[in-house]
Amino acid sequence: xxxxxxxxxxxxxxxxxxxxxxxxxxxxxxxxxxxxxxxxxxxxxxxxxxxxxxxxxxxxxxxxxxxxxxxxxxxxxxxxxxxxxxxxxxxxxxxxxxxxxxxxxxxxxxxxxxxxxxxxxxxxxxxxxxxxxxxxxxxxxxxxxxxxxxxxxxxxxxxxxxxxxxxxxxxxxxxxxxxxxxxxxxxxxxxxxxxxxxxxxxxxxxxxxxxxxxxxxxxxxxxxxxxxxxxxxxxxxxxxx
Length: 241
Prior knowledge:
With about 240 residues, the protein is α+β, with helices and mostly antiparallel strands. It has 7 helices and 8 strands, in the order ββββααββββααααα.
């Protein structure tokens, strides 16, 4: 015989009204007379985000930044990164479309520069940082677009984006211009990745290699100067190029 009881059904008992919340056995039910009180907030919470006019990617595609503008943007971003680093955080996704700006008037092109999109920001001692997880944007869409504009893509491969070897071709181009990959990659890369990198380095004929003559140990990401150190560089004081 089917039971006349059901979940959510309210029954009047000796001490009040009970709501059936769970069936324990065929003829055993669990009910409670504890009321559920929903208190609506008097003022619903909201997040107000600061509005800025555009991002640096769009701005640089429309018109290249001057040397002075690059200095200004770079300083503001390094100052933002220094705040994060001083509090033991890494941004992980610094790229032109995550740099927001407000337009100025006359000869002043920008009045405000802000680093946005901290959704992937993690503590420096987190598993993501220690294990070398790939987080953020690929190298070929990074800040170098500020220098060249016009949607510049140094490592553009000769295959479409949906091609199986698209990523491999990009690594080959990277190695062609900036290779070989540093030996310190052994500290962070699994053997399978190291085998791929070794294959890429061997696949480039010597005649096609275009070594980056000014490359130094500081071009290895983990050995690069900190944001605080870069802010002291003479370039920001008009002494460098």
